[in-house]
Amino acid sequence: MKEDVKKYIWNAIQWNNAKVITADDKTYEWIADPVGYFLIRVNEETQEVEVGVCEYDDVNNIKILVKGKSPQKICQLIIAEGLLSRMDHAAYLGKELARAWICMKTGVKYVQDGTVSGEFPEVLWLEKKEDAPK
Asked: Which one, of 129, 103, 128, 104, lies nearest residue 116 by Cα?
């Protein structure tokens, strides 16, 4: 699609009457997905993102391994197979698959729930700040 056509289509969208909802810092209750949870990693040898599907009653024992080169296709397959049941879990999966893929493509170490640099955000919280109370 030509750039001027894209610009026309974008500008033709009517935003004036849209209801505006602003995301803020509100914390929402975390509810476990009854189907299970995911362990996500990058397989550097095969250049694939791998998702292990685990159950809460058998912690870190992967029951199903889903793998592929496209975050979107992996996510679609997991949804089609009924391996998740909550929309917030699907959103989390999409975010982490995208992060894993970006890390894989850029050669950065992927850490699930970490930062793009490969570090856990918790490490930053644990660093003692100069102005921290003693």
From this structure: 103
Of 50, 34, 52, 39, residue with least CA distance to 88: 34
Q: pLDDT tens digits, residue range 73-115?
A: 999 999 999 999 999 999 999 999 999 999 999 888 888 988 7
Q: What residue ranges do the domains of the chain occupy?
A: 34-113
Q: In the chain, how long is the greatest CA-to-CA distance?
A: 60
Going across the sheet that includes 37-43, the strands are: 37-43, 48-54, 64-68
The one-character DSSP state at 27 is P
Pairwise CA distance, residues 94 & 72, whole Å: 8
Residue ranges of the alpha helices (H) in 14-86?
Answer: 71-80
